[in-house]
Design goal:
Blueprint: E1 5-10, H1 11-15, H2 20-41, H3 47-57, H4 63-70, H5 79-88, E2 91-100, H6 101-111, E3 115-124, E4 127-133, H7 151-162, E5 169-173, H8 179-184, E6 187-191, H9 196-201, E7 204-206, H10 210-219, H11 221-227
Parallel strand pairs: 1-2, 1-5, 2-3, 5-6, 6-7
Antiparallel strand pairs: 3-4
Length: 231
């Protein structure tokens, strides 16, 4: 089946009102998580190195414990209704995150999102090994942030997969980690942005819930052109 439009969405802080790192911190790793994050912010660690170190903290932790903490994070108001609306307009919806596949899959199923891209968390007999398999992708992009999941590469990959031109794509995110996909998509949306970098590159900046975002997009001429049959 050929899809004419693609909507990429970040998970943590975008469709979720919290972040996966919060769930990991509650397992007793708050100080270590903050230390690793600070090293990445200072440039001591690259993005994918941060992901590797955070995952290593989870070695020996039952997956059920991580899921229990993760499930405490609520969805942003109107998230599922927004996804259903996009799909009715002909969008294939894609969740993209530097979190783990076992968590992203839960979100995708709950919100009826079509696909997801995430780090694959290794689990043996219900116990986390501390290892991840990273999609990467930054090897093909200049001036990348070296994240474990290159969201710009995911944008290009899904475009190739479904034969969709860049002008028929939208991207929604909240932090600098979403900067590239927001900058280069047909319509980049900074949703409740936490970093000024994405505000500077976004076509639209929206604060509020998904009902507010739906209202703003419904009046946006670029979005209307993406929804229309013309490329």
């Amino acid at each position: 089946m050929s899809y004419r439009k693609i909507a990429l969405m970040d998970m943590d802080g975008t469709v979720l009102a919290g972040r996966s790192l919060e769930a990991i911190s509650r397992l007793g790793f708050k100080e270590k998580v903050e230390e690793i994050k600070e090293k990445r912010l200072k440039g001591v660690l690259k993005g994918y190195e941060e992901s590797l170190r955070v995952a290593s903290l989870l070695k020996g932790i039952p997956l059920s414990r991580l899921i229990k903490e993760f499930d405490k994070i609520k969805f942003v108001n109107g998230a599922k209704e927004f996804i259903i609306w996009l799909k009715k307009l002909g969008f294939i919806t894609v969740l993209v995150t530097v979190s783990y596949d076992v968590l992203a899959e839960r979100v995708a199923k709950a919100l009826e999102i079509d696909e997801f891209y995430a780090n694959k968390l290794e689990v043996v007999d219900g116990v986390i090994t501390g290892k991840i398999v990273m999609p990467l992708g930054w090897q093909y992009v200049r001036n990348c942030m070296f994240k474990s999941v290159c969201k710009l590469n995911v944008l290009f990959e899904t475009m190739r997969k479904y034969g969709v031109p860049i002008g028929k794509t939208i991207a929604i995110g909240d932090t600098v980690l979403d900067k590239c996909m927001i900058k280069y998509s047909g319509l980049g949306i900074a949703f409740n942005p936490k970093d000024k970098e994405i505000v500077e590159v976004a076509d639209i900046v929206v604060y509020g819930d998904f009902y507010k975002l739906k209202s703003v997009l419904g009046r946006n001429e670029v979005f209307k052109s993406i929804v229309s049959c013309s490329t």
